[in-house]
Amino acid sequence: RIMPVRWSRYNPSYLEPEVKKESYQKPLEELSEEEREQMELKAVRPIKAAPPTLSSSVFSDPMISKFTNMMMKSGNKVLARSLMSQTLEAIKRKQLEKYHKAPENEKETIECNPYVIFHQALKNCQPIIGLSNITRGGKTYQVPVPLTDNRKRFLAMKWLITECRENKHRRTMMPEKLSQELLLAFNNEGPVIKKKHVLHKMAEANRAYAHFRWW
Amino acid sequence: QLEHCCALHTAARGGLSSSSPQDVPAERPRAVFHTSESDPAKHTEQHEARLYNIPLEEVKAVFPHGLPYRFQQQIQTFNEARVMVRRPALELLAYLKGSSFAHPAVRYVIYGERGTGKTMTLCHVVHYCSRQGWLVLHIPDAHLWVKNCRELLQSSYNKDRLDQPLQASLWLKNFKTSNERFLQEIKTQKKYTWGKRESTEEGRPLGEVVEQGLARVRSASDAVGVLLREIKQQSQRGSFRLLVAVDGVNALWGQTSLRKEDKSPVSPEELTLVHNLRKMVRNDWSGGAIVTTLSQTGSLFKPSSAYTPHELLGKEGFDALDPFVPIPVANYSPREFESCYGYYLERKWLQHEKAHTEDGKAELQFLSGSNPRQLDRLAGPL
């Protein structure tokens, strides 16, 4: 039996499933023309099966799911998800302890929401410009090249995970390592930010080869 | 009254409540689900589903061991120890207040599904008894004594039995921190010889027995046995009240995962600590009470769906503990859930923006099934 892995084998007539609760709670009168047509179409056409990563929970976050998938090894999503939740809890605990010990005037500056810290840390780790290998006349040059949003996000997440897996003591737990790295990245410190700066410097140094790019 | 509480939660968090006159705000108004009554003796149905504060010094003195790990982490993060007053605990406290101590000790068995709050109910009762001045014999988890033991020594007192020096010395250390003054007051009634040169004379304070057990780790289990025996004999005289609080009592009658050197399995009867503890849990003494908890999470060779006394204790344990007063602990009632949710919001534990909305609260209630442990685990990353 052939299972579709990367490209969907659905008939083009199949529609995407609608998961958000709000769209079903709107009464009929408030819908505009297109939405009414869409509803009638849905009554007739078949609908694709919802993937397991798609959730109708108010607490689901696509970036967190992507990061969990990247942390997952050999399909063990249960372990990856529990590690992620332990990381978020560890970040929250550290920040709350700092918050309670801080004097009154500094309390507003301390950010306790682990989601805000996660998103900001990822944003701080994203490189603006990347390098790609282009071969001209037998020699390979590192050419500075603009990156798409997806590639930036992927690189930031990949660097964080490899940094935690490789450059730490063998016996430290992943949530501990990850929470430490995320907090450092949130404050624009730490080895991942350094790696981003090194990449930027290399791109700046190789400015001369920028015309090799043809796209 | 439920809608009244809900309206107060969402509208005014000013601590104004007509049902409890003693919660008049002192300096800063606390919300409806807190209570300023930190003495468990005065907790009544009015205080149900409210959280009371235990001062941190008292926590260190009364609970050197015995609190669940997640709760200890919570105490450290929030800088305060808040325990919810729930109906099973109130029931137990009422029984303890009304019991007569000339009669043999009554046994109470707290049972319930996983994560419903059995250990916290036990800790509430232990706090009450230590406030009343009872001698509290708190064994945090009997399952730790029947599994994962690295060193098993053959007991010098009885050739068939096996000693566990590490567990015994750890327990003695924690017992010393919680019951300092009793160790000076109670005197031994017999001479005990620990070896060729060491012995404890008659009439010495029990503190010396504990020191002996801590200093000579090899005889720690025997020291525990002597301690339990002395305390049991002397509580009948009535100079002090004794509370035996055992968490995970089904470990005493199940199977162990330990093996002897010839790889034959060890039955719990052959361990000195378990043997002495079984004698304590029998109701042939008076002047106190025995409060125990069943626990499936640490138990060996028991299915995870088992939670009733009969399933977890087995025939042997049930016959040994029979007759007992069963106290079921259930999941949170809607009022208790509101209380817990409000507490997490107040201490800024729920940081996710959606967690503050009605949708988030309904989702938390549905996902956790109002189970205290599941709610705690879910609220962690949020």
From TrEMBL, chain A:
It is found in: Mitochondrion. GO terms for cellular component: mitochondrial inner membrane; mitochondrial small ribosomal subunit. GO terms for biological process: translation. Its main location: mitochondrion. Residues 50-207 form the Small ribosomal subunit protein uS7 domain. Keywords: Mitochondrion, Ribonucleoprotein, Ribosomal protein, Transit peptide. Pfam families: Ribosomal_S7. PANTHER family: RIBOSOMAL PROTEIN S7 (PTHR11205). Belongs to the universal ribosomal protein uS7 family. This is Small ribosomal subunit protein uS7m. The gene is Mrps7.
UniProtKB/TrEMBL annotation, chain B:
It comes from the Eukaryota. It is found in: Mitochondrion. GO terms for cellular component: mitochondrial small ribosomal subunit. Its main location: mitochondrion. One of its GO terms (molecular function) is structural constituent of ribosome. Residues 25-45 have a biased composition (Basic and acidic residues). Residues 13-45 are annotated as: Disordered. It comes from Erpornis zantholeuca. One of its GO terms (biological process) is apoptotic process. Keywords: Mitochondrion, Ribonucleoprotein, Ribosomal protein, Transit peptide. The lineage of its organism: Eukaryota, Metazoa, Chordata, Craniata, Vertebrata. The gene is Dap3. Belongs to the mitochondrion-specific ribosomal protein mS29 family. This is Small ribosomal subunit protein mS29.
